[in-house]
Structure formats: C-alpha cells, structure tokens
Write a structure and sequence with these properties.
47% of the residues lie in helices and 15% in strands. It has 268 residues and is of the alpha+beta class. A hairpin with an 8-residue loop joins β3 and β4. α7 runs antiparallel to α8.
Amino acid sequence: MTPLPRTNVDSDSTISPSARAKIRIRIKGIDYRMADQCASEIVASVTPTGARISGPFPLPSQIEVYRAVGQDEIRGHRRNLEIINATAQTVDVMRRINLPAGIEISIISPDEPVAPDPAAIPVKRNRRHDSRVAAMQFLYSWEVQRHGDLVTSLYDFFSEREQPREYYSFAEELIHGVIRDATLIDEIIGKYAKNWAFTRIARVDLAILRLAAFELMRRTDIPPVVSINEAVDIAKMFSSDESKRFVNGILDSYKEEIGRDPRKAEGV
C-alpha cells in the first residue's frame, strides 16, 4: 500500500505498469460526507476514460478517538473502489484529482491470491449476516453509480468477495428486491425520517435502511426484530453511534405500521 499526498494523486510511479489494468483505491476521512464526496468525484472523473468501476464500497469504520464522558467516539470512515481496465488516460486523470483537506487516499496494487492455511482454525461465519453486509455494500455503490449494467456490476462485486458467489445468494435476493422496490422503500424511509431531508441521510445509513425496510415489507419469513437488530449491528460496524440510533428509530417506527408480531416469522 502506497500512501498518497492528501492534496492530489501526483506521481506516475505510485501506479506500476502491471497494476494499471486494475487499480484498487482506498479513501479514508473523519467526515463521512467528504469520504462519500471524494468517492463520487473519482467515479465521475474516471468513468469517461473508458475504465469500469466496481464500487465504491464502505468498509467498517475505525475508532480514531475513543469516547469521552458525554461524547461519542470519533471514527474514520473508509471507502474502497476498484478501477478495472484502467488506461494511461485513467492514470493521468487520477493524478489530477484534488482531494479536500482531511481525506487520505491509498492506491493498492492487486495482490496475488493467497492460498488459505490448511492448519488455520476456521472462522465461525453467519451466512445471512455476511449476505446483509455484502448487500449493503453493493447498494451503497448502486446509489453512487445507478449501474446500467447490473449483471456486470454484480459479477465484478462478487468476484472480490471472500466467499464464492453462491455463498451470497441471500444478498442477491435482497439486492434485486431493494432495487425493484426502491421508490416505495424510499417513500417509507422519508415518512419516518423526521426532521431529516432525504438528501441529508448518509449513504451508508440509506443503504442499511433500504435493506432492512425491504425485509420488513417483503420478507415475512424473517421476524421483524431480526431485520432491525441486524441493521443496527451493521450501522454500528460501518457508521457511527448516531447512525445506529437513527436507523433503529426509523425501523422501529415502520415496524409498528406493518402490524406483524415482531418476534415471529410468517409463511414458513
């Protein structure tokens, strides 16, 4: 990983010739709005060069300053994106991008695949939780790009996951459902996001809310409390303390409207 100057991507040597076909970029900032804006600007600048972009995707936030009495902790917010089929023009555009103060960018050369250690202790996984996280990450990207070619976008996304694509079958169900019902879902979120203009909702929070609202609305085979708890946990991991309260408040209000037993699944 080669850290780049905070003001611009300025050196051709930061991107080796072998890495130019595929460039992975990591964005980090204390202000999530600036991180989101920077990611969007990179997408807008690079796309006209003919390169394809997978992402941006949010990564788990990192605590930078721990909680003081009466205050929330300060977190660093990270975004990843991958530029595919990068050209010399793509690299030149990247060099010209100006970054706002407080934003750091690293260009990560794609690594050779690492074979798993057969002696390593297997990590206990929750397949549905992993799928919800993956679906949230893709929906964040979808909000930035509104992918015209969903098939290719999903292929690019799942090609970079830790597990085979079949592992995330639940994520694909959720992604297609949210995109299909996006207009109705956004009306529901807007109804309960009191004192918040829809455009002010953080993109990570919006992706989490869309995902959970879809589950509450369409997936009667899942107890509402499960969908809400999962959404709050993902907000806690990828966003902030304020976000988890915001997400919980909206979903809890919507839960009352749907009139289902919050702890029971239906139709199973």
